[in-house]
Amino acid sequence: MSTNAESKSLWRHAFEQLCKDKLALTSLIIVAVYSLVAILVALGVLASDWEQSVGPSYNPPSADHPFGLDIFGMSVWAKTLKGTEVAMSVGLVTSLISITIGVTLGALAGYFGGKIDEAIVWFYTTFTSIPYIMLVVAIAFILGKGLMTVYLALGLTSWVSLCRLIRGEVMRHKDREYVQAAGAIGGGDMRKLFVHILPNVLHIVIINFSLSFQTAIKSEVILSYLGLGVQGRPSWGIMIDDAKLELARGVWWQLAAATLAMLIVVLAFNILGDALRDALDPKLKGK
Amino acid sequence: MKKFALPILALSRLPLFSCTKKEEANEKVLNLVVGSEVKGMDPIYSNDRYSSNETARVYEGLLEYHYLKRPYQLTPNLAEAMPEVSNNGLTYTFKVKKGVKFHDDKAFPGGKGRELVAEDFVYSIKRLADPKLQGLGWWVIDGKLKGLNEWREKNTSAEKVNYDEVVEGVKALDSHTVQFNLTKPFPQFLYSLAMTFTFATAKEVVEHYGNEFLNHPVGTGPFMLPEFKQTNRIEYVVNPNYREKKFPCDASEEFEAIAKEYCGKTLPLVKKIVVNIIKEDQPRWLNFQKGNLDYIGIPKDNFDAAVTPTNELATDLSTKGIDLLIQPSLDVTYTAFNLDLDLLKNKKLRQALSLAYDIDTSNKLFYNNRALPAQSLVPPGIAGYIKGYENPYRGHGKEADIAKAKKLLAEAGYPEGKGLKELTYDCPSSTVSRQIGEYTKQQFAQIGVKLKVVQNTWPELQKKIDKRQVELWGIAWGADYPDAENFLQLLYGPNRAPGANGSGYDNPEFNRLYASAAVMQDTPERTALYEKMVRMAAEEMPWIYGVHRQNYVLKHSWLKNYVITDFEAGSEQYLDVDLAAKKTALEKL
C-alpha cells in the first residue's frame, strides 16, 4: 500500500468531516482568531498602548472601555489582548518542545525496544515525577524569571504522555506488512521509522497538540498567578491575581475579562481536540 | 530585627471571642484574640508579637512602657525606680521592688511563691545568653554586657552551663540590687529591659519543669496560667497575690481623661482574660460583630465597609457603640537603591527618580489614602521626626515635580533617560508588592526611565540583598524600640549588608553623627543630631521614601481604657470592662 495516497485521503477526509461539524468549525475559527490577535499584538498593531493610563483607577466598564479599568487606570481590554499574546505563544512553543521530545524518544523506544526502550522508559518515569512548578523554580534560578523559563519548564514537563502514546503505537506498527515491505526493498531503520511509520501515527500528534496547547495555557495562568510566570507584562494569571484583592471592593471586571478569555480558548481547543480525534482516528471512521 | 514585607498591613491586633458558655454577668472578663498559634510561654523564645504578648501577661521585667504616654516613655515596673547611670554611661544600677512574689506553684517549697530577688534577673539574663538554649532574643544583649559573650563562648563546649560564675556585665550587688556593666555606652540598652526576652524567671521553676518549662509559666505578673496547652483558647486568671500596683495618674494630653478616671485604682482591673486563637479574618470579624471580642484590627477586605472615605466609622457600626481608633505605627516603607553600583551613586539620578514617584497616588492606591507620606526615614511619635518638614525631592505627581525630575535627570547625565540602562526592581511575590512595583515602573516611565519588575520569595529577596544582586527593591522597617536610632542605623555605613543597611549608604559625615548620637542619653542635643541626620538622609535619597502606615482598630463601647500601642506587651492589665454598658450594648448587636 502506498502511504502517501493513504495519508492524503485521510487528511482530506478528516477536513471534510471537520467542516460538517458546526461546533468544531466554530472552535477552529475561534482558535484562528486568537492566533491572529496574538500575531497582531506581537507586531504592535493591537494593544500597543496597554501601559497608558486612560482614566481613573477602577473605572467600571463603559462604552469606551468595555472591560473597565484596573488599579492604575489601564484598559483591561488592552491587557486582555496583551495577555492573549503571552498565552498563545506559551501554548505554541511548549507544544512544539513537547512534541519534538515526545515523538523522538517515543519512536526510538518503540521501534528499537530492548535496552534503548528500557533506558527511555526509565528516563521518562523518573522525569515525570518532578512537579513542573519545582522545575520552573529550578530553571528560573538559572535563566531568571520570564517567558523563556515558562516555555522551557512547561515544554520539558509535558512530553511524557505523548511519548508513551507514540511508543505504544510504533510498537504496533513496526511488524506490520508495509514496514516489512519497506525493509525488504532495502530501507534502513531510520527510513522505516521516520518515512513509513511516523506518518501513520501523526494523527496522535495532531490531537495531542491541540490538547497540550490548552494545558499549557492553563499552566501559564497558574504560574503567573503564583508570581512564577511572566514578569512585567500582562498575563491572564496576573490579572486574576490582581482580582483576588479587587473583588472585596466590588471590582469584578478584570477577573471576568481574564477568565472569559481563557475559558473561550481552552474550550475551543478541547472541542477541536475531540473533533480531530473523531475525524483522524481510522477506527472511528464511518461510525 | 523586624523587617517586613511591604504588604503586611497593620492588622496586627486581633480580637477575641468568648465561646458558648456565657460568662457570669458580674465577672469582668477580657475577650482577646490572636491570629496565630502561640509558640509557648518562655520569655527567651518570645520573638514574635503573638508569643511575646502572651508571655507578658504572666511575666514582668524591670521596666515597661508607660501605658498612657506618647512619645513612648520607659517607666519602672519591677524596678523600684529608673536606674542610676554612671557618668560614663556604662553602669546601670537598679533597685528591685521589695515584697514582689512569684505565683504560687509546686516548684517552690510548700507551693508558695517566693520573693523576687536581684539574683533572678542575673539568672534570666544568663539564661538568655545560654549557648545550649539558643534563646531567640540573644541579639538584644549580644556584645553589650561585659564578659557575657566570653561566658557564652566558654560554656558552648562545656558539658553543663555554669550559672554560678559571676559575670561582670550583670551581677547582684545585694538581695535587691542588680547592676549592669556595658562594654560601651548604649542608651538604648534600657529598652531591652522592657522586652519580654529579659523578663524575670525563677531558677527553681526552670529546673523543676525542665523541657516542660515552656508550658508552665510562673512569673510575677498580674495574671496566671497554670498550664499552657496548644488549644484554641487560653484562659488566664488574676494573680491573687499580685503586688500593689496602681493605675498611673499622669498621662499625655490625649489620654488625660482616662488617667483622671482611673488614677490610683488597683491593677489589674479585670478578673480573667480569655484569649482565642482565630487565624482567619472573617470568623474574627464576625465574632467581633457579635460582641464576642472586645477589640479587633480591621481586616483589609472589610476596610471599605467599616471605614468611610473621610476616615469615619460606618454608621451601622457606630450606632452599635463601636469606636474606631487610628494611630500611626512606628514604621517606614521605602524603595532602596543599591549604592554599591556606580550608576546609582549618582545622587541627581536618585533625586530625579524620587521626584518622578507620586507618593500621594501611591498612598491612595495601596493604603486607602490612610498612610502618612514619609519625608525621611523616622516616623512620627519618636524624637527625630521633624514635624512639618518637607523633603524637597519628594514627588507629588505635579507637573512641576516632573519638570524638576527631568531637569535633574539631564544634569545626572541622562537627558530624557537616554543612555540609562533598564533598571531592575525586586519585590516579594505578593500581589500588592507586585502592584507597587508596577506602579513604580509607571512613575519612572514619565521621565523616560525604564524599569523591570521581578518577583521573589521573601527568603530569595533577602538573599539577593545580602549578596548585592539587586538594584532597586521595595521593603519596610518596623521599630524594635521607640528610638530613632533603630531607624538611623539602617543607613550607618558599618551596618552595611548583610547588616541592616541594605542600600549600603556610607557617608563619613552621617557615620560620624550616628556614632556620636548612638552613645548619647536622650537629650535635646541628641535630638538635634538625629534631626540633622534625618535631613541629610532626606536630601541624599539613599531610598525613595514611602509612607508611615497607620493602625486601625475597632473596639466595643464597654471596653475601657483601650489605647493603641506599638509595644502592647503587658498592656491588658490597664483594660477594664464596663459590665452595665456591655449588657445594654449586647442587646443592640
**Main beta-sheet annotation of chain A:** none
The CATH superfamily of chain A is MetI-like
User: CA-to-CA gap between the ends of chain A?
Assistant: 24 Å
Name of the level-1 CATH class of chain A = Mainly Alpha
At CATH level 3, the topology of the largest domain in chain B is: D-Maltodextrin-Binding Protein, domain 2
Fraction of helical residues of chain A: over 70%
Taking Cα atoms only, what radius of gyration of chain B do you get, to the nearest Å? 25 Å
Poorly predicted residue ranges of chain B: 5-23
Q: What is the overall silhouette of chain A?
A: elongated
Q: Which secondary-structure class do the elements of chain A indicate?
A: mainly alpha
Q: Rounded to an integer, what's the Rg of chain A over CA atoms?
A: 22 Å
CATH topology heading of chain A: MetI-like fold
How many strand segments of chain A? 0
Q: How do the helices and strands follow one another from N- to C-terminus of chain A? A: HHHHHHHHHHH
The coarse silhouette of chain B is globular
Could you give a short description of this structure?
The complex is a heterodimer of chains A (287) and B (589). Chain A is mainly α and 287 residues long. Chain A has helices spanning 3-20, 22-42, 76-112, 114-128, 132-143, 147-157, 160-173, 177-184, 189-225, 236-246, 253-280.
